[in-house]
Amino acid sequence: MPTAPTTTLPDRWFRTTPDSSHLTRPRLLARSLVDVARLDDNIRHYEQLTGIAGDLRMPIPDFGGLELAAVDTMLLIASARPFTPIQRQTAYSVIVPSLDAELERLLPTGTELLEPPETILPGSRARVRFPDGSIAELVEHRPQPGEVAAAPPAAPDRTVRLLLRKAVSRAAFADTVALYETLLDATVAERARPEGPYETELARIGDLLIVGTDGPEYTRTGAVRLAVLTSAPRELPGAQPLAYDAAQATSRHHVMRLQDGWRAELWDPALFTPDPAVGT
Q1: Both 128 and 179 in a single domain?
Q2: Which distant-in-sequence residues (6+ apart) come within 8 Å of 133 by Cβ?
Q3: Do residues 68 and 56 make contact, with C-beta atoms less than 8 angstroms apart?
Q4: How far apart are CA 41 and CA 47, in angstroms?
Q5: Do residues 179 and 132 make contact, with C-beta atoms less than 8 angstroms apart?
Q6: Statement to judge: residues 74 and 34 lie in one domain
Q7: Which of 32, 103, 157, 210 lies 20 to 30 Å from 131, alpha-carbon distance?
Q8: Is residue 136 domain-shared with residue 169, that is, in the same domain?
């Protein structure tokens, strides 16, 4: 694939991992489209929420005036122009070791190529639709000449773990888990069957939490796209309980609105046990 021309990197540019070929598997990120004026505030919000500093910031003036920042599993995307319909419909950004190899791996699964590979300042990208209908942008990072990796952020204490959340019916749960194990090239790490008025199954695959239930977590909270694992939900900075969830909330399960407006489903990490198939 052709390389991008030598370019002076914009101000504020930094990446702790300029070369994604060193990744052992795809890195899944939630996408938050934000107003340019709110980008710095939102970065601070997620740094406070997760306890970890951002690990990349990429102003890309020649690609629609975009500026991107990643904090843990959240990719914040600011643009000087209105976001396009396809940008709004895209659920995930996935940083991959090799774009060509990833497409070769995914296309036989029924994944559809929506936008072919193209070279961009960070490396290269393509847009795909997964077999379940979710749209993802795949991005391969490669360093610019002379680019030096930024120091990695300090390891979080993981008292708060931020995950992407995907809710499906219980009937679709097992198939969805198997699909995302294939798409993310990873296996289930933890499972849970929390008690409550509705039977619910949880499976964590890397930074994705799949929720299988026919209760309100699936039917009434479809807009909830994040999950937070924490044993101290009342201590989350800027988070507010949602009124409609008050009747369903338990000491181990809440739905809250984060400071930036995103809804997050909170679970007590004590509910989870390692999947027997992968050991401890």
Answers
A1: no
A2: none
A3: yes
A4: 10
A5: yes
A6: yes
A7: 32
A8: no
Number of alpha helices (DSSP H) and beta strands (DSSP E) in the chain: 5, 18
Q: Give the CATH number of the domain where residue 176 resides.
A: 3.10.180.10
Q: What is the distance between the alpha carbons of residues 180 and 206, in angstroms, rounded to a whole number?
A: 10
Residue 237 tokens, joined: 């900075």
108/170 same-domain check = no
Question: Do the domain assignments include residue 154?
Answer: no
- Residue 182 token pair: 């294939």
Range of the domain at 70: 14-141
Q: What is the pLDDT of residues 223-255, one digit of tens each?
A: 788 999 988 766 777 777 765 444 455 556 778
Angle at 11 between CA 69 and CA 51, to 5 degrees: 35
Give me the number of domains the chain comprises.
2
What is the distance between the alpha carbons of residues 57 and 76, in angstroms, rounded to a whole number?
Answer: 9
Question: Cβ(101)–Cβ(140) under 8 Å?
Answer: no
